[in-house]
Amino acid sequence: MRLLADQDVYAMTLALLRNRGHDVSTVSEMGLSQATDLAIxxxxxxxxxxxxxxxxxxxxxxxxxxxxxGVIYLRIAPTVLHATHDELLRVLSQYGEVELLNAxxxxxxxxxxxxxxxx
Length: 119
What we know:
6-stranded mixed β-sheet; alpha/beta
């Protein structure tokens, strides 16, 4: 799975995904640390990557502007890190990359919500 990790994603999450064979680039590696949320989302879309973030503002951005891109929003805290990681891995195995490139998925400990982006 091709992912673009926002700068707020935990290093442990990045390591987990990379160790599982996912192609994970980060916002900082791409020189986008000072970029706006819109610019980061547009970069993910252009590179055909699913944006992985802990910033809930991306959901509003997608639906308010009718932007077709994939976002996985992690509702994660250190106390539920492992349970949320388990659910994230479940999401990445349950849905194909094409599905995730056109969806907003909210991942939290023990569950997730999948919302297809249409329009």
